[in-house]
Amino acid sequence: MPSHRESRTLPYTADLMYAVVADVEKYPQFLPWVTGLRIVRRISDTAFDAEMRVGFAGLSERYISRVTLAPEAHTIDVVKTGGRGPFRQLENHWRFTPAGETACEVAFAIAFEFRNPLLNAVAGRAFQTVMLQMAGAFEARARALSAAR
Predict the structure, then answer these.
(1) Fewest Cβ atoms nearer than 10 Å: which of 8, 38, 51, 57?
(2) Which domains does the chain carry?
């Protein structure tokens, strides 16, 4: 199963980076390939199921994930639920650790497996490019929100 881990220090607070990633309903505004996102079920103040629609080159898929937020710990965990969608398995984990007063270390881990073995092989090759573009989109969102304050 393809997986990726990375950690980087960014010039934004842990609170801001946590807020950017936790605000999943805004993803269609800034994340590449995310064409829609809606909360389908609230479990508690810190857990919900979200349906994400992704699209590329005329193809469109959707899947549901359980999102678990831990604001005090600055962590977010996401695990695909249910049998629908392009993924057999998908999970990602975010950790935001303060690094001084105006920076934080962002640790991100993702593991996934597509239902279609051919898609798994193709995605594996493009994986690094996709991860860089997604990381850049989150960072650009934090930059825009920081400048607006």
Answers:
(1) 57
(2) 3-148 (3.30.530.20)
